[in-house]
Amino acid sequence: MAESVVASNTENEVKENGVENGNVDFAVTTPRECQPEVKVDIESETEIEAVRSELGQDVLRVSKGLFQNEEEDDEDSGTDYLNDEDNRGTHLQRAEREGNAGLPDTFQTNNLLFYERFKAYQDYMLGDCKTSEVRAFTADYLEKIVEPCDWQALWRTEVFDVLVEVVDVDYKDFRAKVDLVLPLQCETRGCELTEEAMKALLEATTHKVPLQELHVVFDESGEFDQTALALEHLRFFYKHIWRKWDEEDEDDDFDYFVRCVEPRLRLYYDILEDRVPAGLVAEYHALLARCSEKFQEFSSLRNGLSSDSDSELDNVSMVEGLRMYEQMEALKRKLRIIENPLLRYVLGYKVNSGQQSCRAKGVRPTGGKVIHVVCATTTVQQLQSLMSDKLCPKYSSQEFELQFHSDPLLAVNACYEGDVVIVCPGHYDVSSSISISDSIEVEGYGLPDEVVIEKRSRGDIFVESTGADVKISNLKFIQHDAIEGILCVRQGKLEMENCVLQCETTGVIVRTSAQLTMNMCDLYGSKGAGVEIYPGSVCSLLGNGIHHCKDGILIKDFADELDVMPKITMVNNVIHNNESYGVILVKPDDAAAGGQPVETSPADEQEEEEKEGGMDEVKPETDTDGNIPVVVIEEECPTPARRSGIPPEYTEGNDVIKQELVATSARKHRLQRLRAKEPGDTQADENLLAQEMFVSIHGNQFRRNGKGSFGTFLY
């Protein structure tokens, strides 16, 4: 007799039909009222098995169809490691502790690269926030990243390191509530710390400690990587980027990251990677300390003033407060100059400019003088030639002693006042800077290309001269990685003749009160200026070639009351193929120094235009900061007729230079008058400043300089 069998796709029947063998670990069920009934007439047990098998295949096909796309996406997913236990783990290094205190290791987060910190602050922590919004943005960043509880950290101060466990985080206050991990695990510095004392300390602080003082304990799971990085970014920001006076910045409408964070971050890494002179670093830190001290005094004085008091004491305090405020603003402006890479390049530093690397020895105690002969190896014939060509004709009438050296650095270091160093042909590698502090002569015996001194190691300067009367001749210097320059005349007088200077970073620097006479030399390859001339210096450039640098000659003016114009002589120099200008003058923007704008009328502007003879207008470029660096480009201007027989593109003599200087002042004067219509901009300057510093200019040639022969940079 035929039987009626009702088959349903329940979980049990799916298992009975072998669906489990098809690697399907789920069951598709439908409500009982919606389940279709399938009536089958069964003739034999074989037919029942066939029906069950068919139902199982249908369920398998349906399930594969439903989840086919999901399985394909899983195969191509780039985040499989998040679900794969084998691939999970920390991507940070372990910071192993020194000593035997028994404290656990922490994450290594203090060696992050520039772009890692840059991206974190720009994209995640600060964005485009204003100065007044920095704390709120930072708190929001911490709330998204930092684990709220159940992680261990080292509470690190100047006195102790203690292991604690974080039980709660106050993101807005940048503090964490912690409990002491028992038994006590700590490391102290100069003190004794007991468990009872630590508990009392935590009770006094209501168990809350600053997040900046917490260093996350190393964990290989990777669960606390982001917490460790977030705390490092917070710690670094408030230690190296944030300033106490930033909260009172008047430029609150501007992007804080662009205006403050980026330049300070770049300066930090430039200092870290030895790209800033040691003197400038020392000055920057000294300025920071002075500004912090002045801000503290100003804040204390301001907090002590009464808003409704008219007493004489309060009036005196207000006057004193204004004086402090002006001093603090001057310090802040100097800090911004150093933090700005461009201004740092064109202005340099002054505080340590007269500091000597070593003191002068003076006259030799025995009273004699020495000729230091430098040669790696020599032959009898070479020595005989040296005696006949150099030593006998020049030094036979005086009592000189001979000393031989294999290293020019050792020879210079052994010199006393009046000694002579003669460097024989050869290629000499020196490991450190050459400092000349006494009045000596250093001369190459041969052509400059035959007597080469090369420095490959990193340092502030290659050759430094502080002697009263120093002479260098017939040498070739090759510079590598010298931060400050290939040669610096810090003080005294240096005469350089027939030398070749192959630069890599910066060229020759003439500091305040120093004198340089550079005659028949060839200088090239500087990434900055070929020659940097500071206020108060005396520089004579006679018959030199200065080429393939960023700028040929850079003349600096700090706008200080004590600064005086340098005295410059330029005769028969060839300044060519420089990327920017042949000669560039750095001048302060009068508006930055507190100058008042000058009102002009349309008639005045028309008069200025007529005076300029139709020269194209050059519009200054301003930044969003309060400092307005402006480059005034002096291109082609009317020139007198050239002398016959000399190609016009090769010669620009004294008259042409003077005319360019006049055009510079006229153009600058017009720009200042036009810009003076806006309050706080540049004050007009009636003086022809450029001509005051030049003692003599004639016979110079300017060829193929990228932006022209003469330019002015206003800061």
UniProtKB/TrEMBL annotation:
All residue ranges annotated as the SHC SH2 domain in the record: 116-344
Biased composition (Polar residues): 1-10
Gene name as annotated: shcbp1
InterPro entries linked: Beta_helix, Pectin_lyas_fold, Pectin_lyase_fold/virulence, SHCBP-like_N, SHCBP1-like
Lineage: Eukaryota, Metazoa, Chordata, Craniata, Vertebrata
Chain intervals with Acidic residues compositional bias: 69-84, 602-611
GO cellular component terms, semicolon-separated: spindle
Cellular localization per UniProt: Cytoplasm, Cytoskeleton, Spindle
Keywords from the named record: Cytoplasm, Cytoskeleton
PANTHER family: SHC SH2 DOMAIN-BINDING PROTEIN 1 (PTHR14695:SF8), SHC SH2-DOMAIN BINDING PROTEIN 1-RELATED (PTHR14695)
Pfam families for this protein: Beta_helix, SHCBP_N
Superkingdom, natural source: Eukaryota
Domain Right handed beta helix: 459-586
SUPFAM superfamilies documented for this protein: Pectin lyase-like (SSF51126)
Chain residue ranges for the region called Disordered: 1-30, 66-103, 592-625
Keyword Glycosyltransferase belongs to the record: no
GO BP terms in the entry: fibroblast growth factor receptor signaling pathway
Name recorded for this polypeptide: SHC SH2 domain-binding protein 1
Species per Swiss-Prot/TrEMBL record: Chanos chanos
Compositional bias per record (Basic and acidic residues), positions renumbered to this chain: 85-99, 612-622
Keyword Cytoplasm: yes
